[in-house]
Amino acid sequence: MPSCIEKIEAPEIIKESMIYSLNAGGKRLRPILLFATLHAFGKDEKLGIDVACALEMIHTYSLIHDDLPSMDDDDLRRGKPTNHKVYGEAVAILAGDGLLTHSFEIIAKSKELSDTLKANIIAFLAQAAGPSGMVGGQVADLLGEQKDLNVEELEYIHEHKTGKLLRFAVVAGAIIAGASKDQQECLDQFARHLGLAFQIKDDILDIEGDVKQIGKPVGSDVGKDKSTYPKLLTLEGAKNKCNDHLTSAKEWLEKANVESDLLLEIADYIVNRDH
Ligand code: GRG
Questions:
Q1: Nearest residue by C-alpha to atom 27 in ligand 1
Q2: Is 100 in a helix, a strand, or coil?
Q3: Amino acid 219: pLDDT
Q4: Is residue 29 in contact with ligand 1, taking CB distance under 6 Å?
């Protein structure tokens, strides 16, 4: 993927900054989900390569902007200095902007997809990433920092901030594969539950990671800082909810009637991962 960035006619510094974050060690979960969905329909993964790259670029832009001083103000991401710590705030903002806009160019120029499919996927991705999707979730998250949230409000944030792109990954794979409307709906529900399980697991890992790294007793963070599932439900309650979403995800996957081996493996990985 970064080789396609190198070819862009642009000042070296912006390309370097974009490639820095793209290569900073992300799990590539969204592209993997898209490829696994194509696999579930017996389709060549190559069909989804441009959309998968575009999706990872949008995810990467969101993390660069999320880390900025005006947002979460983080110094480290994936154990490495955040983009703005290396390149400065202005270049980091522009690297995010560059990744976002370039992602749509990649899909528009894809040689793998028909024009109709490209137009549909671009509209779907813009919706998933934009104000009714990830951007809206991020805004709700910022507003929610000023108050105690209930589970419904927390769910709204996560369904939008992280859920919409995860759902896009699976449903875009299904659309490219030529899935029926019914299969698309089942896989969308699969991804919705998987996204919630992913987020709850993330909250659980935040607590258990602290225990491993600095020896805080389990549960000592529950109740501090911003609203999380363990804070609202207890650590045990959050683990149960995570498993419930995994079970629901698997039920919807079964209903989709596809070759589900890889998608099942990913679902189990999401809930059992340790980082
Ligand atoms: C700035 C518009 C805008 C949106 C930011 C996704 C997001 C929205 C913020 C991320 C905040 C965060 C750390 C949420 C926790 C769960 C999560 C989405 C983690 C990052 O996704 P992974 O684990 O990341 O797939 P990697 O590093 O593997 O690519």
A1: 26
A2: helix
A3: 45
A4: yes
Token pair in block for residue 259: 């070759």
Backbone angles phi, psi at 16, to 5 degrees: -60, -40
- Domain 2-272, CATH number (from 3.40.50.970, 3.30.1370.110, 1.10.600.10, 3.20.20.120): 1.10.600.10
pLDDT in tens, 104-131: 999 999 999 999 999 999 999 999 999 9
Residue 218 scores a pLDDT above 50: no
Distance 257 CA to ligand 1 centre (A): 30
CA atoms of 235 and 200, how far apart (whole Å): 10
pLDDT at residue 235 in the model: 95
Expressed in angstroms and rounded, the spacing between residue 28 Cα and the centre of ligand 1 is: 11
Domain boundaries, the chain: 2-272
Q: Is 73 exposed, middle or buried (0-12, 13-18, 19+ CB in 10 A)?
A: exposed
Quote the pLDDT of residue 208: 85
Atom from ligand 1 closest to the CA of residue 129? 2
Secondary structure (DSSP) of 119-153: HHHHHHHHHHHSTTTHHHHHHHHHHHTTS---HHH
With a cut of 80, say whether residue 25 has pLDDT above it: yes
Atom of ligand 1 minimally distant from the CA of 60: 29
**For the chain, give me the number of helices (H) and strands (E)?**
13, 2
